UniProtKB/TrEMBL annotation:
Superkingdom per UniProt: Bacteria
Entry-linked Pfam families: LacI (PF00356), Peripla_BP_3 (PF13377)
Residues of the HTH lacI-type domain: 2-56
One Gene Ontology term of the molecular function aspect: DNA-binding transcription factor activity
Highest classification ranks of the organism: Bacteria, Bacillati, Actinomycetota, Actinomycetes, Propionibacteriales
Name the record gives this protein: LacI family transcriptional regulator
UniProt keyword annotation of Transcription present: yes
Amino acid sequence: MTTIADVARRAGVSPSTVSYVLTNRRPISAATRRAVERAIEELDYRPHAGARALRGARTRILALSIPREAESYHEIGWRFVYHINAAARAHDHDVLLLTGDDSVRDLRRIAGSRLADGAVLMAVLTHDQRVDALDDLGFAGAVLGRPADPRGLPWCDYDFEGAAARAVRELVRAGHRSIIFVSSTDAEFRAGLNYAPRAVAGARATAREAGVRLAVMRSSPSRRTLARRLLALLASEPTPTAVVIHHAVPALPGILREHGYVIPRDVSLAVIGATPDLVDQVPLARSELPIADMTTTVVEFALARIEGETPTSRLIPARWIGGRSIAPPPS
């Protein structure tokens, strides 16, 4: 069966351009329109009824794609789902969750049947086949996260690299010369979730510039594994005097206290990508994930794409919140 991608190849245009010709959602030059119409005729392409629908015939539904790889995603991921739904409802749209084993197949099914007007991709991978699928299908969408190649899709992300760099700078400013960076989990790195390597890169680059030692360890959902990794590094030389955590790991401050470490007297602590409700016996120095801002932006991007607009991608800068968990290293 002939597809939009086949028509696009014959006409020498992108699949999204074919989609715009079929739906009249964006002004197209006369020459391009003729090329697409000629390809449609030559290939005897029969668009789905939904693709022939009038501009105003909308479902007012956004598909939200969460890949199977996101099983390793932090619980915080479901906060994003909640806020995406709230942002969509603010624009009188409903959200259709796509959580099947094959997220690309799910997107093709939704686009082909026009069960939704567009899609938001969440828990984006560095190399994400869903991005390619949306582009190939000419289906409107936006990305929560920053893939290596967005294929022209608008994306919104938090500056994890900048947040990690700021945390290391704050510790260096306080006098620390040996720092532990607790990165994302093994599962997150295996899945290829885009934020995991970005945070490590920001921390390493800043430590290198400052001439300080940075030991990177991966986090773990297992308290025992987390404790073993952390305590082994704390016993190494030169002795680490500060820890940066990517995402809030509630068990970590407790592990430190159980083994006789007092924050910040014995070890300073900073968190990047924390949530606003983060609490501890000592108010932690941190940067917080702007969940509401990120989700509102990505929904607005998706709705703009449905209207044929091309919004500019947005990287939200990290905002540092000073706490009482950083002090000069013990003498």
